[in-house]
Design brief:
It is built from ten helices and twelve strands. By secondary structure, it is an alpha/beta fold. The chain has one domain: P-loop containing nucleotide triphosphate hydrolases (Rossmann fold). The longest helix has 18 residues. The structure holds adenosine-5'-diphosphate and magnesium ion.
Amino acid sequence: MSPLPSQPLLSVKNLKKHYATKFSLFGRATRVVKAVDGISFDILKGETLSLVGESGCGKSTVGKTIIGLLQPTSGEIELGGARIDNLSPDAFRAQRKRIQIVFQDPFSSLDPRMRVRDILAEPIHNFGLARNAADLKSRVDDLLDVVRLPKDAASRFPHEFSGGQRQRIGIARALAAEPDLIVCDEAVSALDVSVKAQVVNLLQDLKDRFGLALLFISHDLAIVDHITDRVAVMYLGKIVEVAPRGPLFENPLHPYTQALLSAVPTPTPGRKTSRTVLRGDLPSPANPPPGCNFHTRCPLAFDRCSRETPVLRSTGPDQMAACHLID
Ligand SMILES: Nc1ncnc2c1ncn2[C@@H]1O[C@H](COP(=O)(O)OP(=O)(O)O)[C@@H](O)[C@H]1O
Ligand SMILES: [Mg+2]
């Protein structure tokens, strides 16, 4: 593998997204869900970063904030060194082309009344990428070819395809904009095991072929093993560990990462196999525990953990974890 350039493509700095869900008579927020509560990470050009964690920990909120569907509560998002979180709608449009998203459910994200040809033509048209009608047609054909769908798919409707094929259409639509980064939000989670592997392989090929960066969001740590360069583990709105794939899977440092990994069914030989079983449910992000927000479920928690919030600190090359045990 060629070395990755050091200038980050995407840089997320101390991002917070809080949802006010209840208000007093005078409009003051009385219940605030801290869905994303101060996270920072970079994605390099051509890199795959996986964002993993249990359902409800804030992954989709991160994805939606990055693509501009949600406004951050605070923090900064930079693309190629320039802020994109505070742009006017017009200025954002130009940047929007560079980041595309593939959602979990291709049924609800593809307009059932549109033929595949028109679904793919829409971003090409919106971003002014085709020189003329012939170019548009050849771009649509190429996209179908790239995601390995037959040419005649162009004249069909989404419901005529299987789940895996629909997800290929969703990927083709994302590629149509010629992005630098694709956010894949649980893009393979709803697919059958064998189809899942095919779509992951496709994403891997596209990434190599087009030098794409991916933010691969998944609650399933097993699937990211096949595709990722680095992994960021989220718990209740915060990143608790970031590491390259190898160290994360072979030597996870945070007890939460260890717990997630011990739930992965087929451990690779040489990997730590001690089982860490999590107690209890994910606490509410509207009322996170004090100190380390994982302490209520951590098998290794001691008194400091309920008093003091651990910060994410460097523990080795490229590896960081937020845990008092690592001090
Ligand atoms: N629009 C919203 N309004 C209020 N709360 C929300 C909203 N969207 C998400 N949440 C809450 O924010 C938290 C994180 O949600 P989400 O980002 O979807 O997590 P994940 O993708 O990891 O499952 C959850 O507690 C969820 O219920
Ligand atoms: Mg989600």
